[in-house]
Amino acid sequence: MNNRIQGTTSLVALLGYPIEHSKSPAMHNTAFEALGLDYVYLAFGIKKDLLKQGLDAMRALNAIGFNITMPHKEEVVGLLDEITEEARIIGSVNSVKNKDGKLIGYNTDGKGFVKALQEAEIDFQGKKIVILGAGGAARAVAIQLAYDGASEIVIFNRTLSKAQEITNTINNNISTTKAIAIGLDEQMLKEELKDSAVLVNCTSLGMKSNIDQSIVTTSDTLHEDLFVADIVYDPPKTRLLSIAEGVGCKTMNGLRMLIWQGAIAFKIWTGKDMPIDLIF
Ligand code: NAP
Protein backbone atom coordinates (compact mmCIF):
# COMPACT_ATOMS: atom_id res chain seq x y z
CA MET A 1 0.00 0.00 0.00
CA ASN A 2 1.46 3.33 -1.03
CA ASN A 3 -1.00 5.92 0.18
CA ARG A 4 0.31 8.90 2.09
CA ILE A 5 -3.03 9.32 3.96
CA GLN A 6 -2.83 7.07 7.04
CA GLY A 7 -4.35 6.75 10.51
CA THR A 8 -1.95 9.45 11.73
CA THR A 9 -2.86 12.05 9.08
CA SER A 10 -4.20 15.37 10.42
CA LEU A 11 -6.90 17.43 8.78
CA VAL A 12 -6.65 20.96 7.39
CA ALA A 13 -9.89 22.21 5.81
CA LEU A 14 -11.73 24.82 3.84
CA LEU A 15 -15.22 25.82 4.99
CA GLY A 16 -17.40 27.82 2.59
CA TYR A 17 -20.16 27.56 0.03
CA PRO A 18 -19.74 26.94 -2.84
CA ILE A 19 -16.18 25.53 -2.67
CA GLU A 20 -15.88 23.33 -5.78
CA HIS A 21 -13.90 26.01 -7.71
CA SER A 22 -11.30 26.49 -4.95
CA LYS A 23 -7.61 26.16 -5.77
CA SER A 24 -6.69 25.81 -2.08
CA PRO A 25 -6.84 21.97 -1.85
CA ALA A 26 -4.44 21.58 -4.79
CA MET A 27 -2.11 24.24 -3.38
CA HIS A 28 -1.89 22.90 0.18
CA ASN A 29 -1.84 19.19 -0.67
CA THR A 30 0.99 19.79 -3.17
CA ALA A 31 2.92 21.59 -0.42
CA PHE A 32 2.19 18.95 2.26
CA GLU A 33 3.35 16.22 -0.08
CA ALA A 34 6.48 18.11 -1.17
CA LEU A 35 7.53 18.67 2.45
CA GLY A 36 6.51 15.18 3.60
CA LEU A 37 4.01 16.59 6.11
CA ASP A 38 1.37 14.19 7.44
CA TYR A 39 -1.59 16.48 6.72
CA VAL A 40 -4.44 16.44 4.20
CA TYR A 41 -6.44 19.47 3.01
CA LEU A 42 -10.14 18.92 2.25
CA ALA A 43 -12.87 21.38 1.20
CA PHE A 44 -16.29 21.22 2.85
CA GLY A 45 -19.37 22.96 1.47
CA ILE A 46 -20.94 24.47 4.58
CA LYS A 47 -24.07 26.59 4.12
CA LYS A 48 -24.70 29.76 6.12
CA ASP A 49 -26.79 28.30 8.95
CA LEU A 50 -24.29 25.49 9.64
CA LEU A 51 -21.16 27.56 10.26
CA LYS A 52 -21.16 27.10 14.04
CA GLN A 53 -21.52 23.32 13.66
CA GLY A 54 -18.69 23.45 11.11
CA LEU A 55 -16.40 25.11 13.68
CA ASP A 56 -17.40 22.56 16.35
CA ALA A 57 -16.55 19.82 13.86
CA MET A 58 -13.07 21.31 13.33
CA ARG A 59 -12.51 21.13 17.10
CA ALA A 60 -13.97 17.62 17.37
CA LEU A 61 -11.88 16.32 14.46
CA ASN A 62 -8.80 18.05 15.87
CA ALA A 63 -8.06 19.81 12.56
CA ILE A 64 -4.77 21.71 12.86
CA GLY A 65 -6.39 24.66 11.11
CA PHE A 66 -8.71 25.71 8.31
CA ASN A 67 -9.55 28.39 5.78
CA ILE A 68 -12.85 30.22 5.77
CA THR A 69 -14.26 31.53 2.52
CA MET A 70 -17.46 33.12 1.19
CA PRO A 71 -20.03 33.56 2.66
CA HIS A 72 -18.57 33.09 6.16
CA LYS A 73 -15.54 35.40 6.38
CA GLU A 74 -17.32 38.11 8.39
CA GLU A 75 -19.73 35.98 10.42
CA VAL A 76 -16.94 33.73 11.70
CA VAL A 77 -15.31 36.67 13.54
CA GLY A 78 -17.90 36.47 16.34
CA LEU A 79 -17.58 32.68 16.68
CA LEU A 80 -13.83 32.36 17.30
CA ASP A 81 -11.96 32.34 20.63
CA GLU A 82 -9.39 34.94 19.57
CA ILE A 83 -8.53 37.03 16.49
CA THR A 84 -5.51 39.10 15.50
CA GLU A 85 -5.59 42.90 15.66
CA GLU A 86 -5.54 43.20 11.83
CA ALA A 87 -8.34 40.68 11.39
CA ARG A 88 -10.41 42.58 13.96
CA ILE A 89 -9.96 45.89 12.15
CA ILE A 90 -10.44 44.30 8.71
CA GLY A 91 -13.56 42.67 10.16
CA SER A 92 -13.05 39.31 8.49
CA VAL A 93 -11.09 36.09 8.92
CA ASN A 94 -9.91 33.73 6.19
CA SER A 95 -7.56 31.46 8.15
CA VAL A 96 -7.93 29.81 11.56
CA LYS A 97 -5.43 27.93 13.71
CA ASN A 98 -6.67 25.33 16.16
CA LYS A 99 -4.47 25.61 19.24
CA ASP A 100 -5.57 22.77 21.54
CA GLY A 101 -9.25 23.47 20.88
CA LYS A 102 -8.83 27.28 20.93
CA LEU A 103 -9.69 28.73 17.51
CA ILE A 104 -7.53 31.75 16.56
CA GLY A 105 -8.52 33.79 13.49
CA TYR A 106 -6.23 35.60 11.03
CA ASN A 107 -6.74 37.51 7.80
CA THR A 108 -4.04 36.64 5.28
CA ASP A 109 -5.69 38.18 2.16
CA GLY A 110 -4.25 41.68 2.67
CA LYS A 111 -0.88 40.30 3.79
CA GLY A 112 -0.84 38.07 0.70
CA PHE A 113 -1.31 41.10 -1.52
CA VAL A 114 1.44 43.05 0.27
CA LYS A 115 3.81 40.07 -0.02
CA ALA A 116 3.09 39.87 -3.79
CA LEU A 117 3.85 43.61 -4.14
CA GLN A 118 7.11 43.19 -2.23
CA GLU A 119 8.04 40.20 -4.38
CA ALA A 120 7.50 42.41 -7.47
CA GLU A 121 9.89 44.90 -5.78
CA ILE A 122 7.30 47.65 -5.58
CA ASP A 123 8.09 50.16 -2.88
CA PHE A 124 4.82 51.53 -1.52
CA GLN A 125 6.11 52.87 1.82
CA GLY A 126 5.19 56.54 2.17
CA LYS A 127 3.41 56.42 -1.21
CA LYS A 128 -0.14 57.07 -2.41
CA ILE A 129 -2.18 54.06 -3.56
CA VAL A 130 -5.50 54.05 -5.41
CA ILE A 131 -7.88 51.12 -4.88
CA LEU A 132 -10.90 50.32 -7.06
CA GLY A 133 -13.70 48.59 -5.16
CA ALA A 134 -14.82 48.37 -1.54
CA GLY A 135 -15.87 44.74 -1.05
CA GLY A 136 -14.31 42.24 1.32
CA ALA A 137 -11.05 41.90 -0.62
CA ALA A 138 -10.64 45.68 -1.05
CA ARG A 139 -11.13 46.14 2.69
CA ALA A 140 -8.39 43.61 3.54
CA VAL A 141 -5.98 45.02 0.93
CA ALA A 142 -6.57 48.68 1.87
CA ILE A 143 -6.22 48.17 5.62
CA GLN A 144 -3.11 46.00 5.28
CA LEU A 145 -1.46 48.53 2.92
CA ALA A 146 -2.20 51.24 5.50
CA TYR A 147 -0.75 49.10 8.33
CA ASP A 148 2.34 48.41 6.25
CA GLY A 149 3.19 52.01 5.43
CA ALA A 150 1.20 53.52 2.53
CA SER A 151 0.88 57.24 3.33
CA GLU A 152 -2.35 57.83 1.41
CA ILE A 153 -5.11 55.52 0.22
CA VAL A 154 -7.85 56.63 -2.14
CA ILE A 155 -10.77 54.23 -2.65
CA PHE A 156 -13.12 54.56 -5.62
CA ASN A 157 -16.35 52.55 -5.43
CA ARG A 158 -19.73 52.42 -7.16
CA THR A 159 -21.40 52.42 -3.72
CA LEU A 160 -19.69 55.37 -2.04
CA SER A 161 -20.86 54.50 1.49
CA LYS A 162 -18.93 51.21 1.38
CA ALA A 163 -15.72 53.02 0.44
CA GLN A 164 -16.36 55.55 3.23
CA GLU A 165 -16.73 52.74 5.77
CA ILE A 166 -13.22 51.50 4.91
CA THR A 167 -11.62 54.96 4.84
CA ASN A 168 -13.25 55.80 8.20
CA THR A 169 -11.77 52.60 9.66
CA ILE A 170 -8.30 53.53 8.37
CA ASN A 171 -8.52 57.16 9.50
CA ASN A 172 -9.76 56.12 12.98
CA ASN A 173 -7.21 53.34 13.56
CA ILE A 174 -4.03 53.98 11.56
CA SER A 175 -2.73 57.47 12.19
CA THR A 176 0.11 57.26 9.63
CA THR A 177 -2.25 56.91 6.65
CA LYS A 178 -4.73 59.40 5.22
CA ALA A 179 -7.66 57.73 3.46
CA ILE A 180 -10.23 59.25 1.09
CA ALA A 181 -13.36 57.74 -0.50
CA ILE A 182 -14.67 58.81 -3.93
CA GLY A 183 -17.57 57.58 -6.08
CA LEU A 184 -16.78 56.10 -9.48
CA ASP A 185 -15.71 58.85 -11.90
CA GLU A 186 -12.95 58.18 -14.44
CA GLN A 187 -11.90 61.83 -14.73
CA MET A 188 -11.41 62.06 -10.94
CA LEU A 189 -9.60 58.74 -11.05
CA LYS A 190 -7.18 60.16 -13.64
CA GLU A 191 -6.52 63.18 -11.37
CA GLU A 192 -5.87 61.00 -8.29
CA LEU A 193 -3.56 58.68 -10.23
CA LYS A 194 -1.24 61.51 -11.31
CA ASP A 195 0.75 61.39 -8.04
CA SER A 196 0.05 57.72 -7.13
CA ALA A 197 2.55 54.86 -7.23
CA VAL A 198 0.12 51.92 -7.39
CA LEU A 199 -3.38 51.24 -8.74
CA VAL A 200 -5.14 48.08 -7.50
CA ASN A 201 -8.35 46.68 -8.93
CA CYS A 202 -10.31 44.94 -6.17
CA THR A 203 -13.66 44.95 -7.98
CA SER A 204 -14.95 41.80 -9.62
CA LEU A 205 -14.83 43.50 -13.05
CA GLY A 206 -12.53 41.64 -15.44
CA MET A 207 -13.17 38.18 -14.02
CA LYS A 208 -14.73 35.52 -16.23
CA SER A 209 -18.36 36.60 -15.66
CA ASN A 210 -17.47 40.28 -16.44
CA ILE A 211 -14.53 39.58 -18.73
CA ASP A 212 -14.73 42.59 -21.02
CA GLN A 213 -15.27 45.13 -18.23
CA SER A 214 -12.94 47.50 -16.42
CA ILE A 215 -13.37 50.64 -14.31
CA VAL A 216 -10.55 52.15 -16.39
CA THR A 217 -11.85 52.35 -19.96
CA THR A 218 -9.16 54.44 -21.67
CA SER A 219 -5.36 54.44 -21.62
CA ASP A 220 -5.53 58.20 -21.08
CA THR A 221 -6.48 57.58 -17.41
CA LEU A 222 -3.14 55.87 -16.61
CA HIS A 223 0.52 56.91 -16.80
CA GLU A 224 3.56 54.74 -17.39
CA ASP A 225 5.11 55.23 -13.93
CA LEU A 226 2.11 53.57 -12.31
CA PHE A 227 2.29 49.95 -11.10
CA VAL A 228 -1.07 48.38 -11.94
CA ALA A 229 -2.25 45.32 -9.99
CA ASP A 230 -5.45 43.38 -10.51
CA ILE A 231 -6.41 40.91 -7.78
CA VAL A 232 -8.51 39.00 -10.33
CA TYR A 233 -6.44 36.00 -11.51
CA ASP A 234 -8.84 34.28 -13.92
CA PRO A 235 -8.33 35.31 -16.70
CA PRO A 236 -4.63 36.04 -16.09
CA LYS A 237 -4.78 39.21 -18.18
CA THR A 238 -7.88 41.32 -17.46
CA ARG A 239 -8.98 44.21 -19.62
CA LEU A 240 -7.45 46.60 -17.05
CA LEU A 241 -4.06 44.87 -17.30
CA SER A 242 -4.21 44.97 -21.13
CA ILE A 243 -4.89 48.71 -21.08
CA ALA A 244 -2.09 49.21 -18.52
CA GLU A 245 0.42 47.21 -20.56
CA GLY A 246 -0.48 49.32 -23.61
CA VAL A 247 0.53 52.43 -21.63
CA GLY A 248 3.83 50.80 -20.59
CA CYS A 249 2.91 50.23 -16.92
CA LYS A 250 4.38 47.31 -14.97
CA THR A 251 1.52 44.97 -14.01
CA MET A 252 0.64 42.04 -11.74
CA ASN A 253 -2.44 39.79 -11.69
CA GLY A 254 -4.01 38.17 -8.61
CA LEU A 255 -2.29 34.80 -8.76
CA ARG A 256 0.69 35.73 -6.55
CA MET A 257 -1.71 37.22 -3.95
CA LEU A 258 -3.65 33.95 -3.99
CA ILE A 259 -0.47 31.92 -3.52
CA TRP A 260 0.93 34.18 -0.80
CA GLN A 261 -2.30 34.33 1.25
CA GLY A 262 -2.17 30.53 1.20
CA ALA A 263 1.54 30.44 2.03
CA ILE A 264 1.04 32.71 5.05
CA ALA A 265 -1.79 30.47 6.33
CA PHE A 266 0.40 27.40 5.67
CA LYS A 267 3.14 28.89 7.87
CA ILE A 268 0.61 29.69 10.63
CA TRP A 269 -0.58 26.04 10.63
CA THR A 270 2.68 24.16 10.09
CA GLY A 271 5.44 26.57 11.10
CA LYS A 272 7.04 25.87 7.70
CA ASP A 273 7.52 27.89 4.50
CA MET A 274 5.33 26.72 1.64
CA PRO A 275 7.48 25.69 -1.35
CA ILE A 276 5.68 28.25 -3.52
CA ASP A 277 7.68 27.53 -6.68
CA LEU A 278 5.96 24.12 -6.82
CA ILE A 279 2.46 25.63 -6.67
CA PHE A 280 0.52 25.96 -10.00
P1 NAP B 1 -17.28 41.63 -3.16
O1 NAP B 1 -17.21 41.77 -1.68
O2 NAP B 1 -18.51 41.08 -3.79
O3 NAP B 1 -16.99 43.11 -3.80
C1 NAP B 1 -17.14 43.35 -5.19
C2 NAP B 1 -16.67 44.76 -5.53
O4 NAP B 1 -16.81 44.94 -6.96
C3 NAP B 1 -17.51 45.88 -4.88
O5 NAP B 1 -16.69 46.98 -4.64
C4 NAP B 1 -18.54 46.19 -5.98
O6 NAP B 1 -19.06 47.49 -5.92
C5 NAP B 1 -17.66 46.07 -7.21
N1 NAP B 1 -18.46 45.82 -8.41
C6 NAP B 1 -19.10 44.68 -8.74
N2 NAP B 1 -19.75 44.84 -9.92
C7 NAP B 1 -19.51 46.12 -10.32
C8 NAP B 1 -19.91 46.88 -11.46
N3 NAP B 1 -20.69 46.37 -12.42
N4 NAP B 1 -19.46 48.15 -11.56
C9 NAP B 1 -18.68 48.69 -10.60
N5 NAP B 1 -18.26 48.02 -9.50
C10 NAP B 1 -18.68 46.74 -9.36
O7 NAP B 1 -16.09 40.72 -3.72
P2 NAP B 1 -14.63 40.49 -3.08
O8 NAP B 1 -14.65 39.31 -2.21
O9 NAP B 1 -14.15 41.78 -2.54
O10 NAP B 1 -13.80 40.05 -4.39
C11 NAP B 1 -13.57 40.96 -5.46
C12 NAP B 1 -12.70 40.29 -6.52
O11 NAP B 1 -11.44 39.96 -5.97
C13 NAP B 1 -13.27 38.98 -7.07
O12 NAP B 1 -13.05 38.97 -8.45
C14 NAP B 1 -12.44 37.91 -6.39
O13 NAP B 1 -12.30 36.74 -7.17
C15 NAP B 1 -11.10 38.62 -6.26
N6 NAP B 1 -10.28 38.11 -5.13
C16 NAP B 1 -9.01 37.67 -5.39
C17 NAP B 1 -8.22 37.21 -4.36
C18 NAP B 1 -6.82 36.73 -4.63
O14 NAP B 1 -6.25 36.03 -3.79
N7 NAP B 1 -6.23 37.07 -5.76
C19 NAP B 1 -8.72 37.19 -3.03
C20 NAP B 1 -10.02 37.66 -2.79
C21 NAP B 1 -10.79 38.13 -3.85
P3 NAP B 1 -20.34 47.82 -4.96
O15 NAP B 1 -19.80 47.93 -3.58
O16 NAP B 1 -20.88 49.09 -5.49
O17 NAP B 1 -21.29 46.67 -5.12
Mean pLDDT across the residues is 96
CATH architecture of the largest domain: 3-Layer(aba) Sandwich
Calculate Rg over CA atoms. Answer: 19 Å
Hey, roughly how much beta strand do the residues contain?
Answer: 15-25%
User: What is the CATH class of the largest domain?
Assistant: Alpha Beta
SSE string, helices as H and strands as E: EHEHEEHEEHEHEHEHEEHEH
Describe the main β-sheet briefly.
Answer: 6 strands, mixed
Which shape, going by the Cα principal axes?
Answer: globular
Strand tally: 12
The strands making up the biggest β-sheet line up spatially as 2-1-3-5-6-4
| Unique ligands | NADP nicotinamide-adenine-dinucleotide phosphate
Properties at a glance:
binds NADP nicotinamide-adenine-dinucleotide phosphate, 12 strands, 2 domains, 9 helices, alpha/beta, six-stranded parallel beta sheet, Rossmann fold, globular, 280 residues
